[in-house]
Structure formats: C-alpha cells, structure tokens
# Entry
Amino acid sequence: MENYVAYLLILIKLVLILTMILTMAAYLVLAERKILGRMQLRHGPNRVGPFGVLQPLADLIKLICKEDFVPPHSNHLLFLLAPALSVITVLLIFAAIPFAPPLTVLGHEIPMVVCDLNVGVLFFIGLSSLSVYGVTFGGWASNSKYAMLGGIRATAQLISYELPMGLALVPLVLVSGSFSLTDIVNAQRVLPFAVTQPLAFGIFFICILAETKRTPFDLPEAENELVAGYHTEYSGLRFGMFFVGEYINMALLGSVTTVFFLGGWHGPFLPPIVWFLGKVLCLCFIFIWIRGTLPRFRYDQLMRFGWQVLIPLALLNLLITGGVLLWLRG
Amino acid sequence: MNLWRGIKGTILPFWVTLSNMLRKPVTVQYPEERRVLPERTRAQIVLTRSPDGEERCVACYLCSAACPVDCISMQAAEDQNGRRYAAWFRINFGRCIYCGLCAEACPTLAIQMTPHYEFCERQPLALVYEKEDLLIEDGGKDGDYNFYHHAGIGVVNPRGSNPDETAPEDVRSNLP
Ligand code: SF4
Ligand code: SF4
# Structure
C-alpha cells in the first residue's frame, strides 16, 4: 500500500512538472519574441488570441503540419535520435531540482522534488555533458556543411565551457558539504551563494549562457554564417524538439542557477514556490535581455575567453575558498 | 583606459535596450491602422484621359519597352483622322514591380501611378487588367495636359495652329 502511494505521488509530480515545463518553454518562446520585439520598438506576435497568447499553439500546429524531411544521405538513426537526446537530457535534470521545501500532508512528508539525489550536482553536470551528443549527432548525421560546422562549434564550445561551470560549482559543494541540491539550497538560508561566492556566480552565469547556446555565445547556430547551425537540415516536429529543447534548457538553467546561487526557494514573506518561480523568471528575462543586447563573439575570442580567463579564475576561486574554509574550520 | 571602454561598452547597451522596451513601438498595425500614403506613391496603374475626354494613350509602345519585367502589352490601331489608339492594352499586375518606369516613359501622360495598393487576388489571372479596367474618366496628375495641343502632326488641329507651335517652315524659302 505504502509503495503504491509513493509511486502515485512520483507519477503525479512527474506529470505536473512535465506539463509545467513544457508550457513554460512554449511561453518562454512567446515572451522572448515579445520582449525582443519591444526592445526593437516592434510589437512582437499579437495576432493569435488576445495579445498573441495563443501563438505557441499556432506554432505547434504549424510545426506538426510541416513535412518531416530526412535528408537522403544522412545517417538516419543518428539523425532521428539527435533531437530526442537534446530534449531528454534536459528534461531528466529537472527530476533532481527541488522546487520548494518538503510539504507535510497527513503526517507524511512529501519532498517537492521528483528524486532527491545525494549526488544531484554530479547528475546535473553529467547530463549536461550528455546533451552535447544531441547537438554533435545532429550536426554530423545531417551530412551538410552548415550543420557540420555548427555541430563542431557546439561541441567545442560546450566542452570548453563545461569545465569552468563544473569548477565554479565545486566551492559550493565545499561550503555546503554535500552534493545534494536540497542541502545546497538549505545552506543558503541566510545568504545566497551569489553574495558569498560572487566570482563563482559570475563564472557560472557566463558558462550557462554558453550552455544554452544563446547570444553572445550562439556560434553553433549563428544564422548569418551557418543558416541555423546543427539543426539546419531538420524540419517539422524534429526541428521543434531542438527548438523547444533550447527553451527548456533556458528554464532549466534558470532553475539550476536559482538552486545553486540565488538561494532556491528561500525568501521573506511570500510562499517558497513563488520565490522559486519568480527567481527563475527573472533569470529568464535576463537571458532574453542579454540576447537583445549583446552581439556574438568571434570563435577565437570564445575559446580564449573560456580557456584562458574562466578556467584559471575558477581554479583561483576554488583555491581561495578551500583556503578560507580550512582556516575557518582548522 | 581600454578596459574602461570595454566595460562601458558592455554595460551601456543594456540600458539602451531596457529603455527602448519602455517606449511605444513604432509599428503601424496594418489592417487596423492605415497610413495616409503620399500622392506620388507608386501603386496601381491607370490610363487617363485628356480634358476633352479622349483617351490619352497613343499606343507608342514606349511604356512597354521601358518596363523592366515586360508586363505591358498592347496592339496599336489608327482611327479615320489618323489618331492612334490602343486596340487592346493589357497590364499584368502579377508581374508589375511598381517601378514607375512606364509612367516616366509615357509622352502623353496617359499611363500614371496611383497610391491605391489594396487589390490583391487569389487567382493570378485576376491580376491581368485589360484596357477597360485601366481606363479612368479623369486626367490624373496633370489634368489640363492635352498631348495633341502641343504635338501630334495635324490630327486634332491643323499643323502649326496650336498656341505654342509655329507654322511649318517652307524649306525652299529659307535658303541663305
Ligand atoms: S511600374 Fe514598372 S513594372 Fe509596372 S508596368 Fe510600369 S514599368 Fe512595368
Ligand atoms: S507610353 Fe503612354 S502613350 Fe505610349 S503606349 Fe504607353 S501609355 Fe500609351
């Protein structure tokens, strides 16, 4: 009996989170188009429904109705696999993210996370490395020069920026003494890590911008150089998956930043879940704002910045944090 | 100094985009809002008439020759007193790029551009306009102009009787 209830609870949480995330991704697309439009003195989409709120639905119908084309000289298996990979890896990470403190219902404690892994940080880093495969396969299997170049750039960029991202997280683990995301959030009850670890926060933020493949790091899909980069050859729902995957990724990295650096659900007055969502949405707005403002890096600048600036800085930060902790606790 | 410039160049644009976001968009929302177009806007083409109500077009083929996309065709004809006119005159608006070269080439001011632009169709053939569709009962931009009062060899008035014309010279009488 107990077992069934537990399974049922997990199922309910999964469905809730999945619908929530997919809706959020769809509306992030709309929000991005609207906000970018306003920043360029345009209206953005405003034809479908009042203020264009039904635009995501219209886009979905359009994508479903498009021809699902597989280029004849592509590697079919990998071509079909790539979009799924890029979405699944991102969705899986959500399972480890705690949205709110545990709820107590009828004497039972229900954690507000699908599974509270004790190696949540590693799980996040591992899966975000796996998501590189989606992009690489997509670029390689399409058998087209633009996709290939986009794929190569994406692979190089994601791998280079994963290192400083991982390194920026190590100090947090040192301070909170745990790999579990819930523990990391609880360690920020007084002060969020963004305040106590500003350097790590800066590095992490830049790295997740690179991870989402958005400006100023959108070289893998630079429209004016590579048509659409690794998803040039995709059409219909498969393209839609890459596209939505990108926005899910945006929501995900917003949540992850909130958990790691902005104190998760901690905040005065308002209920925890509102704080969490508010922080995530603020971060998403900042992502969009950055996209509307900054131009794209050059490839060599991107690489030099990653390897010669971010990684040494992250290492330095790690060293200082370790030293201070040793001194405090020693 | 360079670093300062770099920092300023990174931070200031954020303020620019944010302040633009709070401004009113400049978009004209077409079907609901329509701009009042200037008189000389180049859109649908018409064939005009001279003040005496005659067709201005003399079927000289200049517009057809000037048209870069070859969308004007016609057949010239002549009436009893030698006045030329177009037996049929056809403009394919599906091909027209509204460049206005035809109107510029026309010696009689017959073919003119109007600002009316909302005449799209679902059937491409419906965009082929015949002479009846093109002719209007008006002089258009220069309503008082009458080609035959300035040129046109003895068709409407005898030669040399127009106000700004001198009678033809007898070449034998003005030898040195
Ligand atoms: S406007 Fe230009 S394209 Fe159109 S009929 Fe005249 S010359 Fe041809
Ligand atoms: S140029 Fe003018 S007068 Fe000549 S054929 Fe065209 S419309 Fe007629």
In short: The two ends of chain A are 49 Å apart (CA to CA). The pocket of iron/sulfur cluster (ligand 2) is lined by residues B 57-63, 105-106, 108, 110-111 (CB under 6 Å). The CA atoms of residues 150 and 220 of chain A lie 4 Å apart.
